[in-house]
Amino acid sequence: MMKDLPEDKWRQKLTPEQYDILRLKGTEAPFTGQYVDHHEDGMYVCAACGKSLFNSATKFDSGSGWPSFWDVASKGNVDTHTDNSPGMSRIEVTCANCGSHLGHLFGDGPSNKTGQRYCINSCSLDFKSKK
Ligand code: FE
Asked: Ligand 1 mean position to 60 CA, how many Å?
């Protein structure tokens, strides 16, 4: 079970930047990630475990500087948690398979779709092109 993988194993598997975001709930600087302006057709998967997370068909340009999606690829593949850090009231998004941190969920997504905005770190994602 990937959720039980010891932290030293994650350190070996991931780059230091990926480890900081996926395992320590860091956030990459806006407009720096490789998938912010990425528009190919395919599937965004968890960078830590490979689980399918977000379909390119639900990606939109939010202007936030992070890859943004209005839905998940498959219900059950991502978990949400209320983030009650001091001064915060946010919903954290994690990979349901491995527990890694992906980003946050906000309620200001496209109103003609779901109205939701999954704000996800590029570092937390890999991309599988639909060929
Ligand atoms: Fe994962």
From this structure: 22
Task: For residue 1, name the pLDDT band (cuts at 50, 70, 90).
Answer: low
- Catalytically active residues are 119
Structural domain including 47 reads 2-129
What CATH number is associated with residue 52? 2.170.150.20
User: Does residue 48 carry a pLDDT above 70?
Assistant: yes
CA-only gyration radius of the chain, Å: 14
Which ranges constitute the DSSP H helices of 1-94?
7-13, 16-22
Name residues with Cβ closer than 5 Å to ligand 1, which is an ion. Answer: 46, 48-49, 51, 95, 97-98, 100
- CA gap 111, 119 in Å, rounded: 16
pLDDT by residue (tens digit) across 5-18?
999 999 999 999 99
Q: How far is the CA of 11 from the centre of ligand 1 (A)?
A: 14
pTM score, two decimals? 0.94
Question: What's the domain count of the chain?
Answer: 1
